[in-house]
Design brief:
Enolase-like, domain 1, 8 strands, TIM Barrel, 3-stranded antiparallel β-sheet
Length: 268
Protein backbone atom coordinates (compact mmCIF):
# COMPACT_ATOMS: atom_id res chain seq x y z
CA UNK A 1 0.00 0.00 0.00
CA UNK A 2 1.28 3.45 -0.95
CA UNK A 3 -0.01 7.01 -0.72
CA UNK A 4 -1.24 7.94 -4.18
CA UNK A 5 -2.77 11.38 -3.62
CA UNK A 6 -3.31 14.01 -0.92
CA UNK A 7 -6.08 16.58 -1.33
CA UNK A 8 -6.19 19.79 0.70
CA UNK A 9 -9.45 21.68 1.37
CA UNK A 10 -9.65 25.17 2.87
CA UNK A 11 -12.98 25.26 4.67
CA UNK A 12 -14.87 28.09 6.38
CA UNK A 13 -17.37 26.66 8.88
CA UNK A 14 -20.10 29.21 9.76
CA UNK A 15 -21.06 29.53 13.42
CA UNK A 16 -24.51 30.43 14.74
CA UNK A 17 -23.25 33.71 16.15
CA UNK A 18 -20.08 35.55 17.08
CA UNK A 19 -18.06 33.82 19.77
CA UNK A 20 -15.71 35.94 21.85
CA UNK A 21 -12.94 34.96 24.23
CA UNK A 22 -9.80 36.72 25.43
CA UNK A 23 -8.01 36.12 22.11
CA UNK A 24 -10.54 36.54 19.34
CA UNK A 25 -14.11 37.31 18.32
CA UNK A 26 -15.33 35.41 15.29
CA UNK A 27 -18.37 33.84 13.63
CA UNK A 28 -16.50 31.62 11.17
CA UNK A 29 -14.14 28.80 12.06
CA UNK A 30 -11.44 28.30 9.40
CA UNK A 31 -10.17 24.77 8.89
CA UNK A 32 -7.81 22.69 6.80
CA UNK A 33 -9.19 19.29 5.82
CA UNK A 34 -6.95 16.71 4.13
CA UNK A 35 -7.91 13.51 2.35
CA UNK A 36 -5.25 10.87 1.78
CA UNK A 37 -5.93 8.16 -0.83
CA UNK A 38 -3.85 5.03 -1.30
CA UNK A 39 -3.13 3.13 -4.52
CA UNK A 40 -5.70 0.49 -3.60
CA UNK A 41 -8.53 2.99 -3.16
CA UNK A 42 -8.61 3.39 0.62
CA UNK A 43 -8.90 6.94 1.92
CA UNK A 44 -8.65 8.73 5.23
CA UNK A 45 -9.56 12.22 6.43
CA UNK A 46 -7.87 14.52 8.92
CA UNK A 47 -8.31 18.15 9.89
CA UNK A 48 -7.00 21.10 11.90
CA UNK A 49 -8.82 24.26 12.99
CA UNK A 50 -6.23 26.98 13.64
CA UNK A 51 -7.41 29.82 15.90
CA UNK A 52 -5.69 33.06 16.89
CA UNK A 53 -4.14 32.77 20.34
CA UNK A 54 -3.66 29.01 20.04
CA UNK A 55 -2.00 28.31 16.70
CA UNK A 56 1.36 29.55 15.51
CA UNK A 57 0.14 29.69 11.91
CA UNK A 58 -3.08 30.68 10.17
CA UNK A 59 -5.28 28.45 8.05
CA UNK A 60 -3.78 29.44 4.70
CA UNK A 61 -0.20 29.16 5.96
CA UNK A 62 -0.90 25.62 7.16
CA UNK A 63 -2.69 24.68 3.93
CA UNK A 64 0.21 26.05 1.86
CA UNK A 65 2.73 24.07 3.92
CA UNK A 66 0.72 20.87 3.44
CA UNK A 67 0.34 21.41 -0.30
CA UNK A 68 3.88 22.58 -1.06
CA UNK A 69 6.07 20.75 1.48
CA UNK A 70 4.40 17.97 3.43
CA UNK A 71 2.17 16.27 0.86
CA UNK A 72 4.91 15.92 -1.80
CA UNK A 73 7.14 14.24 0.79
CA UNK A 74 4.48 11.62 1.54
CA UNK A 75 3.52 10.53 -1.98
CA UNK A 76 4.59 6.91 -2.36
CA UNK A 77 4.97 6.36 1.41
CA UNK A 78 3.30 3.54 3.32
CA UNK A 79 0.36 5.19 5.15
CA UNK A 80 0.43 2.44 7.79
CA UNK A 81 4.03 3.21 8.81
CA UNK A 82 3.29 6.03 11.27
CA UNK A 83 6.86 6.55 12.46
CA UNK A 84 8.14 6.76 8.91
CA UNK A 85 5.37 9.23 8.06
CA UNK A 86 6.41 11.41 11.01
CA UNK A 87 10.08 11.27 10.00
CA UNK A 88 9.30 12.28 6.43
CA UNK A 89 7.18 15.22 7.55
CA UNK A 90 9.81 16.47 9.99
CA UNK A 91 12.44 16.27 7.27
CA UNK A 92 10.20 18.15 4.85
CA UNK A 93 9.81 21.21 7.10
CA UNK A 94 10.10 22.51 10.64
CA UNK A 95 6.99 23.43 12.58
CA UNK A 96 3.46 23.35 11.15
CA UNK A 97 2.43 20.78 13.73
CA UNK A 98 -1.23 21.41 12.93
CA UNK A 99 -0.78 20.37 9.33
CA UNK A 100 1.32 17.39 10.35
CA UNK A 101 -1.34 16.37 12.85
CA UNK A 102 -4.07 16.53 10.22
CA UNK A 103 -2.04 14.32 7.92
CA UNK A 104 -1.22 11.86 10.71
CA UNK A 105 -4.90 11.61 11.55
CA UNK A 106 -5.80 10.99 7.92
CA UNK A 107 -3.16 8.25 7.70
CA UNK A 108 -4.53 6.58 10.84
CA UNK A 109 -8.09 6.86 9.51
CA UNK A 110 -6.99 5.22 6.26
CA UNK A 111 -5.14 2.47 8.16
CA UNK A 112 -8.19 1.67 10.31
CA UNK A 113 -10.44 1.47 7.25
CA UNK A 114 -7.94 -0.84 5.55
CA UNK A 115 -8.07 -3.17 8.57
CA UNK A 116 -11.85 -2.87 8.82
CA UNK A 117 -11.79 -1.67 12.45
CA UNK A 118 -12.85 1.55 14.19
CA UNK A 119 -10.05 4.06 14.61
CA UNK A 120 -10.22 3.77 18.39
CA UNK A 121 -9.25 0.10 18.16
CA UNK A 122 -6.19 0.98 16.09
CA UNK A 123 -5.21 3.56 18.71
CA UNK A 124 -5.43 1.20 21.68
CA UNK A 125 -9.08 0.54 22.38
CA UNK A 126 -12.04 2.45 23.74
CA UNK A 127 -11.81 3.92 27.23
CA UNK A 128 -15.42 5.12 27.46
CA UNK A 129 -18.63 4.27 25.66
CA UNK A 130 -19.96 7.80 25.95
CA UNK A 131 -18.26 11.19 25.97
CA UNK A 132 -19.93 14.10 27.71
CA UNK A 133 -19.75 17.45 25.93
CA UNK A 134 -20.04 20.88 27.48
CA UNK A 135 -21.64 23.96 25.95
CA UNK A 136 -19.60 27.14 25.35
CA UNK A 137 -20.56 30.64 26.48
CA UNK A 138 -18.33 33.46 25.27
CA UNK A 139 -17.54 36.86 26.76
CA UNK A 140 -20.85 38.71 26.82
CA UNK A 141 -23.08 40.70 29.16
CA UNK A 142 -24.30 38.78 32.23
CA UNK A 143 -27.96 38.83 31.18
CA UNK A 144 -27.09 37.44 27.73
CA UNK A 145 -24.87 34.76 29.26
CA UNK A 146 -27.64 33.79 31.66
CA UNK A 147 -30.23 33.47 28.90
CA UNK A 148 -27.90 31.43 26.75
CA UNK A 149 -27.04 29.12 29.65
CA UNK A 150 -30.72 28.63 30.43
CA UNK A 151 -31.34 27.70 26.83
CA UNK A 152 -28.62 25.07 26.96
CA UNK A 153 -30.02 23.74 30.24
CA UNK A 154 -33.53 23.42 28.87
CA UNK A 155 -32.20 21.50 25.86
CA UNK A 156 -30.63 18.91 28.15
CA UNK A 157 -27.06 20.17 28.58
CA UNK A 158 -25.65 19.78 32.08
CA UNK A 159 -22.24 21.45 31.71
CA UNK A 160 -20.79 24.53 30.06
CA UNK A 161 -17.53 26.41 29.73
CA UNK A 162 -17.77 30.13 30.40
CA UNK A 163 -15.11 32.41 28.90
CA UNK A 164 -13.58 35.22 30.96
CA UNK A 165 -11.45 38.13 29.81
CA UNK A 166 -9.27 39.35 32.68
CA UNK A 167 -11.67 41.79 34.39
CA UNK A 168 -12.69 40.52 37.84
CA UNK A 169 -15.99 42.38 38.15
CA UNK A 170 -17.45 41.62 34.72
CA UNK A 171 -16.13 38.04 34.68
CA UNK A 172 -17.62 37.31 38.11
CA UNK A 173 -20.97 38.79 37.09
CA UNK A 174 -21.07 36.66 33.93
CA UNK A 175 -20.30 33.41 35.74
CA UNK A 176 -22.74 34.10 38.58
CA UNK A 177 -25.47 34.94 36.06
CA UNK A 178 -24.94 31.52 34.47
CA UNK A 179 -25.21 29.87 37.87
CA UNK A 180 -28.38 31.77 38.80
CA UNK A 181 -30.05 30.84 35.50
CA UNK A 182 -29.32 27.11 35.70
CA UNK A 183 -29.12 25.96 39.30
CA UNK A 184 -26.63 23.79 41.12
CA UNK A 185 -26.97 20.68 38.93
CA UNK A 186 -25.29 22.49 36.03
CA UNK A 187 -21.51 22.11 35.95
CA UNK A 188 -19.64 25.31 35.11
CA UNK A 189 -16.06 25.45 33.85
CA UNK A 190 -14.29 28.77 33.62
CA UNK A 191 -11.65 29.42 30.97
CA UNK A 192 -9.71 32.71 30.99
CA UNK A 193 -7.50 31.88 28.00
CA UNK A 194 -4.44 33.25 29.78
CA UNK A 195 -6.02 36.68 30.26
CA UNK A 196 -5.23 36.89 33.99
CA UNK A 197 -1.68 38.15 34.46
CA UNK A 198 -1.71 38.48 38.25
CA UNK A 199 -2.27 35.80 40.87
CA UNK A 200 -4.10 38.35 43.04
CA UNK A 201 -6.72 38.95 40.37
CA UNK A 202 -7.30 35.24 39.73
CA UNK A 203 -7.65 34.58 43.46
CA UNK A 204 -10.02 37.53 43.87
CA UNK A 205 -12.19 36.11 41.12
CA UNK A 206 -12.07 32.66 42.73
CA UNK A 207 -13.33 34.06 46.04
CA UNK A 208 -16.43 35.35 44.26
CA UNK A 209 -17.15 31.93 42.78
CA UNK A 210 -15.90 29.42 45.28
CA UNK A 211 -19.20 28.62 46.99
CA UNK A 212 -21.28 28.65 43.81
CA UNK A 213 -19.23 27.01 41.04
CA UNK A 214 -18.53 23.28 40.79
CA UNK A 215 -15.35 23.36 38.70
CA UNK A 216 -13.05 26.33 38.14
CA UNK A 217 -9.73 26.85 36.44
CA UNK A 218 -8.05 29.88 34.95
CA UNK A 219 -5.33 29.77 32.33
CA UNK A 220 -2.40 31.96 33.34
CA UNK A 221 -0.74 34.49 31.12
CA UNK A 222 2.37 33.29 29.28
CA UNK A 223 3.96 36.71 29.61
CA UNK A 224 5.77 37.99 32.72
CA UNK A 225 3.78 40.72 34.44
CA UNK A 226 5.06 44.04 35.73
CA UNK A 227 2.48 44.62 38.46
CA UNK A 228 1.75 42.40 41.43
CA UNK A 229 2.76 38.77 41.69
CA UNK A 230 3.26 37.18 38.27
CA UNK A 231 1.32 34.12 37.29
CA UNK A 232 3.66 31.26 36.39
CA UNK A 233 4.69 31.51 32.72
CA UNK A 234 3.26 28.65 30.68
CA UNK A 235 5.11 26.67 28.00
CA UNK A 236 3.89 27.03 24.43
CA UNK A 237 3.36 23.33 23.79
CA UNK A 238 1.04 20.67 25.20
CA UNK A 239 0.42 19.65 27.89
CA UNK A 240 -0.95 23.03 28.92
CA UNK A 241 -0.45 24.54 32.35
CA UNK A 242 -3.43 25.83 34.27
CA UNK A 243 -3.84 27.52 37.60
CA UNK A 244 -6.69 26.32 39.77
CA UNK A 245 -8.57 29.50 40.61
CA UNK A 246 -9.89 28.07 43.86
CA UNK A 247 -6.67 26.67 45.28
CA UNK A 248 -3.94 28.65 43.51
CA UNK A 249 -2.17 25.40 42.61
CA UNK A 250 -0.39 25.02 39.29
CA UNK A 251 -1.49 21.79 37.66
CA UNK A 252 -0.75 20.08 34.38
CA UNK A 253 -3.60 19.14 32.09
CA UNK A 254 -4.09 18.12 28.49
CA UNK A 255 -6.56 19.88 26.24
CA UNK A 256 -8.81 17.92 23.93
CA UNK A 257 -9.71 19.10 20.45
CA UNK A 258 -13.17 19.18 18.95
CA UNK A 259 -13.72 17.92 15.45
CA UNK A 260 -16.36 19.27 13.04
CA UNK A 261 -18.33 17.19 10.57
CA UNK A 262 -16.68 16.95 7.16
CA UNK A 263 -19.37 18.34 4.92
CA UNK A 264 -17.90 21.28 2.99
CA UNK A 265 -15.46 21.38 0.12
CA UNK A 266 -15.69 25.10 -0.53
CA UNK A 267 -12.67 27.34 -0.68
CA UNK A 268 -12.70 30.72 1.02
Amino acid sequence: MKVESIEVFRVDMPMRDFFKNANHNHNVQPAVVVRVTSDDGCSGIGDVEPVAGYSGFGRDEIADAVEQKLAPALIGANPRASREITRKMDEACDGFDGGKGALSLAMADLHAKYLGVPLYELLGGAVKKEVRFNAWIGIKAPDEAGREARGFYERGWRACKVKTGGDVASDAARVLAVRESTGDDFEIRIDANESYGRVEDAIALAHVWKRRISSTSSSPSREPTSRGSPVCAAPSTSPSWRMSACSGRIVCSRSSGRKPPISSRSRS
